[in-house]
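Checklist before submission:
- one chain only
- standard amino acids only
- sequence pasted in full

Submission:
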Amino acid sequence: MKHLVVTTINKPTQAMIELAEGAKNSGWKMIIIGDRKSPPDLQLPGTESYDLSRQVETGFKFAKAVPVGHYARKNVGYLIAMANKATAITETDDDNLPLESFWLDRPLMQSAPALQQDAWINVYRYFTDLPIWPRGLPLNEIQQQCVPRAQIPVRDIACPVHQGLANENPDVDAIFRLAFPLPLDFQDNDPLILTGRSWCPFNSQNTKWFPEAFQLMYLPYHCSFRMTDIWRSFVVERILFGNGKGVLFHNASVYQDRNEHDLMKDFSDEVVGYLNNNEIRNRLLELPLGDRPETMLSDLEKSYELLIDMGLVGSDERELISAWRSDCERIWEGA
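Returned file contents:
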């Protein structure tokens, strides 16, 4: 069964209500992960809600080890979905409202234009003519020229991660939000695959994962909140591309009614990415990793050890990664 994982500290939003209804109608299981500030009753019809105590009752080491008050508690939802033998896990946030296409069955194997050049790719420019870039793209790359879509060869590639875009309030950084007007809608263009050494940040607001990448879903805790899913995407691309896999980017299947944010705080939290994302990419590409599924968990550990050594992720992350690995191994042994 397909699973939908969301974390929230709010009373049920319109997005949560529509996600719950859509999941029920589509035969998906929706898992809601709570935190310290979450309302006492998170239950929506047809969903499974996990407050802090119920998360610990799962028996996952990670659920006991991870501190409260952080988006990375979403990892517990991933583990629950894996233990339920999910055939796919889609994640989103409580301010993303699903479009009809959100519930489409996009397969693992994809045939689409596939970029594999040694470069950062501003994927957003393949879905709009406007000067826009995704959160996490190095600022010195936002003016790059894109290879015309017609010149990109079509390839058949297994894509264990599908990143959908978001209309109205797309996932852009604080600099864009401070400098340019929103809302903005993307064009309904055909999907695009990245593989090889073509990198683009992807987020956790509209992302589908297949079992081939479940073990890589880990969100780091001891780092900038605005970089947790971005740095995860770099680790995922390094490992998946090294295994000959791809990441699919497709047109918007949600629109965001964005929760309130302090844009200057977001900017402050994003500076560490502006200053280091190029170096992270270079260092990860130099890191000797495996090239088969059996090494994914050890490759994950090595990748985050690198980020710890760079001073970008705190050393306390080691305990959480160890717990994640232990839980994943136990799930896989029982599969």
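Reviewer check: Residues 159 and 246 are 5 Å apart (CA to CA).
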